[in-house]
Structure formats: structure tokens, C-alpha cells
Amino acid sequence: MASKGSNRKINRSGKRTRNSADKSEHQTNDSPVVLDDVEIQSRVCTLICSGKSIREVQKELASGNPSVQLTRQQPYTILKNAAKRGRIRYVAPIESELSLSFRNRYDWLHSTEVVHTAEVADIAEHASEKLLDLIGGSRSGGQPKEEFHIGFAGGGLLQHTARLLADKLRRTTRRLPKTLYFHSMVARFDEDPASDPNSFVGYLNSNPPIPVAVRFIGLMAPGIVDVSTAMKLRKMEGIREAYNRVSELDVVVTSAGGHWKTGCSRLHEMYLEKGHEALLARLDQEGCLGDLMWRPFGAKGPIDLKSGIRAMTLVELADLPKLITQRKWVLLVLGRCVNCGNPKTEILRALLNQQHPFITDLVVDSITARSVMSIAT
């Protein structure tokens, strides 16, 4: 495909090559507008997303820009390259009726968004938008705070949420706090450093920069320790500072691990790998259903064993209701189990049925939400 009268060519991948001069040197007020690669990509993606056929895309693009003659395959290639660069993505809708039913049943929740999807990526998309709203002051009359403190637990879903949040912060035009503080709610637990919240700050500090100052308060402690060691570590210099700033948190973002009984939970898996079968048996006896911030949770609430090993966390699960009474927000981001594909019905029901709230806001997939509602009725 060649550009006529502009010394410009576009190859079959949609990339531009130039023979010599820049388009601005040849363009006059009377000549057709010459589009560069990104402008062509934007036009093609917009037309396809509006429902145009490939033939219609070819015709409409050429009618306004005679120099752009696309083959039948090129719009597909352009669309694929745009998706790879994160410039185009599917946004799953909110299942309004189910969301309303959920809010009516659990009316103490501040907000509930049931995402009509089976994909965890769609959950992360809506969770990141929810966080952007909170950061932008949606619960303070639209006026953002000077400083906003957000605490992230770990895991793949929250890693994806943090990445999307950083992207939205770069693109938003709404007013933002002057400084965003990012607290790590758990120490490194998994072997995968990407799912460690201590590494999430990289999304906020990479280029292009976001339009606010970013400060990071990490939890620089071992991920798994003996119960008797945990309290000692809290008092150590370099770790103590993170605990001293818990009161500054505005919102805690957490998720729940995979199914406990099937061994999908990473916490369950870790105990098994390290040979702690006796500890697993004790947790089973206590009725463990899953984990939150790498800490076990059952039908009666958090399970706090007095001996054995445990994950280092910035707050204890039992302290979440107290934080909520202090006007802190706790956002639960929940999707289906990535291992077995089943909804996390039991752990969500357990969280929702506690005497005192452990969460204030919920973003959940429609499969899990339907399962909870069908059991509740």
C-alpha cells in the first residue's frame, strides 16, 4: 500500500516507512489530510468497534484519505497490534439486575458491582475504575484529599488491578490528590515476585509518569514466619514504621484465594509443600474455607492459630471491622478460581454473613454472585 504524492508507504503490518521528507513538508491547506500510523490505527479501530465491516472500513478510510488504501488483511493486523499495546480492550458490562438484588440483600455494603463475565481480567478493569473514583474523591463530595493512602494485598488479580489503575491514573483528566501513598498489606509470600504487592509500585513509577507524587510504604519482612516470631518482627526498625502508619490508610484492597477443600488455595498449597500437614489438619478442623491476605478464614470468621507458621500481614483480619468503623474502606475484588474455574461461593458467603462487616465494597464476577444469591434464597 503506497501513499500517493506524500513519499510515504505503509507495509502490511500497518507500520509506516518514509522515503525522505516529513508529511508536514508536503501538506498544504488544499491537499488531503495525511494520516500517520497511530492516526490510521485509531480510525480503523474506531470504525471496527462501531460495527463496520472490513469492506466498509476500507471504503470509509479511502474516501477521506485517498492515500490510504488498505488490503483486506491490514485492518485485522492493525486491530491486533492495537490490542497488544493495550490501546483497545473489551469492557464487560455490569449485570445491573443482579447487582441490585445483591445490594438489596446485603444493604450494609456501600457498593456492589457484579461484572457480567467469566474472566478475571474484566473484574480487574472494574475494580481499578472503582479505585480511581475513590482516589478522585467520589466519597468526599468530588474533592480529592491532599494525600490518599491505598493498601494492596497480593496475588494475580490484584496485580492486574494495580497495573490498570496506574494506566487510568496516567490518562484521567479528573482532579487527583497531590500525593498517593501505596502501602503493601502483605510481605512477599509467593515465589512469583510479580504478584507481590511490594512490586506493584513499579506500575506507578514507570514511564510515562502519573500526574501525582507517589510514595511507597513497603512491608519489608519475611513472608512466612512462626507465630511467635511475628510480634517480634513488628517491633523491628524498618518494619515497625509500616505498622505505625496503618491508621493513615483510606482503602484496603484485597481478594480471596482459591478453594481450600480442593487445594486450589495458594496458602493451602504452601503448607502442603513445606510439610505442614498437621497445621492443615488443624485448619480443616476449624472449618477453614479459604484465605484473605494469606490468612485463613472460616464460616465463623478469621482463624487465628496460636502456634505454627503464618503469613506476615500489615493488619490482622480480625482488625478489619475496626478499621471500617474508623471510616476506612475495604474493597474485595473477587473472581472465579483460576485453577478449577469454580465460583468462590463459600468464602464470599462467609464474609457477607459475619456479624460485623469485613468489607465495605465488592467487585465480583456474575457466576459467583449468582451462586451466592441462589444459595441465600
Descriptive keywords:
single chain, 377 residues, alpha/beta, Rossmann fold, 2 domains, seven-stranded parallel beta sheet, three-stranded antiparallel beta sheet, 14 helices, 15 strands
Concise overview:
With 377 residues, the chain is an alpha/beta fold.
What do these coordinates show?
- The structure is a single chain.
- The chain is α/β, with parallel strands linked by helices and 377 residues long.
- It folds into 2 domains: 2-84, no CATH class; 96-376, Rossmann fold (3-Layer(aba) Sandwich).
- Helices cover 37% and strands 16% of the residues.
- It is globular, with a radius of gyration of 25 Å.
Largest sheet: 7 strands, parallel
Task: Please indicate the percent range of residues in DSSP E strands (runs of 2 or more).
Answer: 15-25%
By CATH reckoning, the class of the largest domain would read Alpha Beta
Tell me which CATH architecture of the largest domain applies here.
3-Layer(aba) Sandwich
Overall tally of domains: 2
Element order: H for helix, E for strand: EEEHHHHEHEHEHEEHHEHHEEEEHEHEH
Q: What structural class should be given to the helix and strand makeup? A: alpha/beta
Helical run tally: 14
Overall body shape = globular
Distance between the termini: 61 Å
User: And the CATH topology of the largest domain?
Assistant: Rossmann fold
Using only CA atoms, what is the Rg? 25 Å
Helix content range = 25-40%
Strand order of the largest sheet: 4-15-14-9-5-6-7
Uncertain spans:
1-26
Mean pLDDT: 88
Number of strands: 15
